[in-house]
Amino acid sequence: MTNQTVPLLAVPEALSRWLESRGLIYQLLVDFFGRKPTLSLVAQWSRKAQMGVAAEMTEGGRELKRYLCSQEPGELMHICEKETLEYKRLMNERAAIVPREAAHMGCADEFCNVLSDVYASAGIVFKKCNGDESDDHIAIELEFMAVLHERMLYNSFSIRSAMELLEIQETFLDEHLLKWTPQFCERLNAATESPLYLGLSHMLAEFLPQDLQMLRIWKASLESSATSMA
């Protein structure tokens, strides 16, 4: 990863913490919604110091930290076996909570072409986690946000280019993720008693609206900075 190139400006501490942590939170959500919880994945996150970052941002993050970071090493295999069965039950095309935007918005499968065009217009092509996810799968939509975040902070060379990437994220949250994930989270909450998937659901429901609000605050900061330098 290269050094950060987009200036953080003179922003409040809360905004700086958000900019530094949102990529990690998106990655955590992608990891667990995109694939079954293998031993390596659970062990990685249960040991990860950055779990504290997720815990600071949302109550769902605190739930996940309590669950994953309180396990003894010898318990992890049992946790993985139990949560893998739950993942297979919840995250499949026959489940009542199908983790796809089209299913929750009542759209035809061709709707994926719309999202494919959105990704392509941003210059992003995905290598799918399991090789068979549709472009409207929750993990793919979240990964789109994670990739744009990384590009915005680490591969942009001007406030203008950062603003362009910011606006793509703002639009995608407003027109896609926040249109259907509240219903997805409600159904997930009703369908499981798993501490892992309840924590993830609560984190997702809390974090996405917060993320949109913070994007808009940072956008205002960038616009103010650009005006002052004009």
From TrEMBL:
<protein>
    <recommendedName>
        <fullName>Molecular chaperone TorD</fullName>
    </recommendedName>
</protein>
<dbReference type="InterPro" id="IPR050289">
    <property type="entry name" value="TorD/DmsD_chaperones"/>
</dbReference>
<dbReference type="Pfam" id="PF02613">
    <property type="entry name" value="Nitrate_red_del"/>
</dbReference>
<keyword id="KW-0143">Chaperone</keyword>
<dbReference type="InterPro" id="IPR036411">
    <property type="entry name" value="TorD-like_sf"/>
</dbReference>
<dbReference type="InterPro" id="IPR020945">
    <property type="entry name" value="DMSO/NO3_reduct_chaperone"/>
</dbReference>
